[in-house]
Amino acid sequence: MKGFRLGESRVLCYMPAYNAARSLEGVVRAIPDEAWACISRLLVVDDGSTDGTASVAGGLAAKFPAILAISHERNRGYGAAQKTAMAWALENGMDAAVMLHSDGQYPPGHLCEMLKPMEEGADVVGGSRTMYGDMRQGGMSPARYYGTIWLNALENLVFRQKLTSYHSGYKAYTRCALERIPFTRYSDTFNFDSEMLVGAIRARLDIREVPIPTIHGKGYSSLKPIPYGLSVLHTLMKYVTGRI
Predict the structure, then answer these.
(1) Which listed site, 22, 125, 181, 229, has its alpha carbon 20 to 30 Å from 207?
(2) What is the pLDDT of residues 199-241, one digit of tens each?
(3) What is the per-residue pLDDT for 242?
(4) 11-240 homologous superfamily
């Protein structure tokens, strides 16, 4: 993005949150001061949680002026929560938006690193565990590890790209990217991230990656490898047939 400057451009950090009452506040408090210097607002989108996530988010918003909390009346899905945040970013004049998961799966200390490539013209930035090192060192199961490698290779072949990670949930988008990618048409499910990358490729945007460490553990991911893999294959088919 031309003219983007860390600490000067308006950046939204957004957190989709579903039944994240136990982890949300810890993740927010783990954001270091240098990262707060890079972002203008933090938006928590509670996606119809039933465990008090909305109350935790509201409490954080009451304590910290930079934090805003929005709640969906019902659970609409991971992708839907992102759409709410992206629409807010566009409506409120943000120059970029970076997503941070509310379960602690991605390191808050890397927020500025996710944004730095935008100073050099990047439109979309993804955090790559592959670039950081062996994904298994962070506790990734063998099935998920080899499945991810296979899917990445297939996606690079189909999309004619050289990305190391298509399935990271650590993503950042410039305003230009959000304006050019038709994100409102995409899935409300976990497949949203893959479809956003397809949209970026279709729009010929500048996509870059930065290394991030692998963090896995109990409760960090509700995705089941086989159904998720099948959903990715479905996205590939839609791309090949021009339906996305």
Answers:
(1) 229
(2) 999 999 999 999 998 675 444 355 677 888 888 888 999 888 8
(3) 87
(4) Spore Coat Polysaccharide Biosynthesis Protein SpsA; Chain A (3.90.550.10)
